[in-house]
Amino acid sequence: MPKESKRRSPLRSGQNRATAADVARAAGVSVSAVSRAFTPGKSIAQGTKARVLRAADALGYQPNPLARGLITRRSGMVAILMAEVSNPFYPTVLETFARALSAQGKHVMLFTPGEDEPLEALLPRAFGYGVEGVVITSAKLTSEMMSVCANAPVPVVLFNRTVEGADVSAVCCDNEAGGRSIARFLVQGGRRRAAFVAGLEGASTSLYRERGFAAGLAEAGLPAPLRAQGGFTFDGGLRAATELLALKTPPDAIFAANDIMALGVLDGLRRAGGLRVPEDVWVVGFDDIAASAWPSFDLTTFRQPINRMIAETLRILDLAESGAPSSPSTVLLPGRLIERGSTESAVGAVREPF
Amino acid sequence: MPKESKRRSPLRSGQNRATAADVARAAGVSVSAVSRAFTPGKSIAQGTKARVLRAADALGYQPNPLARGLITRRSGMVAILMAEVSNPFYPTVLETFARALSAQGKHVMLFTPGEDEPLEALLPRAFGYGVEGVVITSAKLTSEMMSVCANAPVPVVLFNRTVEGADVSAVCCDNEAGGRSIARFLVQGGRRRAAFVAGLEGASTSLYRERGFAAGLAEAGLPAPLRAQGGFTFDGGLRAATELLALKTPPDAIFAANDIMALGVLDGLRRAGGLRVPEDVWVVGFDDIAASAWPSFDLTTFRQPINRMIAETLRILDLAESGAPSSPSTVLLPGRLIERGSTESAVGAVREPF
User: Quick check: ipTM above 0.90?
Assistant: First the structure.
């Protein structure tokens, strides 16, 4: 049975696979010399290297990145802790990370908590795998979590999250500046009664976007925004729209703390009828996910600079690995307003063509 | 500077971390005995185990899953090769896999090809990491790829893909039966001029869905469906709608090979005006992604049984690992039609309440 024998190859069973120790023995060198022979840039005498390569070839030895990771402490793996991917922003983040790491010959290990599993339980597991760094995104961050991070054996970066006073690096869009820009844009457009749809309470993204939004309105002499809860979900946005429409005087502009809620708000307004977008009420989101550009929604939003955020995250991981100063840094990157049909054009603004 | 000293802990530098070899030396046993002491269910004399645990405790040794993986050949990692995540179906698949594996104490290593990087180049990298299995999804599968898979040192499962005649296991929704169900549903509803919007040419999912759809129409005495290309993207669906509307006699029903294209078709019809959904034309998708249930779309679709598909995939990986017969198997699972507002109710059908 050729099929069976093919599937039960020595490689498969693993029993006969040559190890670095086998090669070391055959070449009469140390295991460390075998590792150096297979690691680009490592110092090793040419004669020794040639002997190792000859022995490796004779034994059919392939260097194993795990084994090398144990020796060099560079496993080539970066852990990403992601609590949920139902917001389409995060799959894009994950894909972009995976591609950027792949270009460096590295790979993502994905850690997703089970139901009721605290995120901090996953961190020691990630460390145990010898990952070179950990990126934490889309998560409720507890103080236990921050303490585990601050004492981590490898660099940790919070992505799209910040925790005030925490001893951990963070890379974020400047959410407060984004909220303020949106407020100014609404004010310029003559909006006078704005509402804010909050994400999860306790999420730094929602908090800072709201803070900047309220500050921008206050600077223009407008009152604090009306407020509804949307929990960062589409259905939450639907419910928030219903709530805001039920007010005696509904808002003339709604800023939802992320796009997926803003899409729910648009659908909620459409289902309720009565108020037209953008004639009666403007709607603005935050993120610029793909669906925001779909004709049904045509949502004005604040685009996060995902590529730059990921490049900065990788830079921090690299710096920390290379032994450069490792005091935690917080990087805030500017995003930009993308105008579409869910708002009218403010004076002087340039619309994105569909 | 307490902060600096905390970040430069012995754990961080890795120099002073106790290894299994240290513990073995201290306990006067072999490294293999240390491994057995820390592996649940492994046979080891109680006295030896106690000696190992005492030595480990004294040295602050934590078993390292990588090192254990090298000894036991069970790294606890499963590779997922995913070429794109822009179709929202795949992030859901990835999240569900990650959670299911996490419940078994295992983790996902994500492999995403760079631009122009052939997927088959990633497989040897995954094998090199000692992954216990490989799941391939969302990919153009070449014959080179299939040959690498058939000779893989660990079990490989194609997810949501099949390749005829390939020596590799596959788990799929029964796409052909799904296409046929949709044809019957349209015929029952009095539709007489159906169109099919194809995904990527060469993708087995699109191919089988089309085959079943055409067969179902033929069984009812109807002609082969009109046809447009949508490339599995929203924009492709938009363009396909425009194309089909430009026909002298446009279709009275459109089945798009995945939901994201069907949403594009709906938006294309809406933008063009003229034809109303569902009065003049019915639209049906395939997958049941979250956005299909949004009020703006309210799309009738064929739901893939993601949870069962993933459970079957893990079962195949487990069986192969446990040494059970490993001839490749193809598992086809039934999906089901979810009726919503983009079609009218066929006789006797039960609608999902919004």
Answer: no
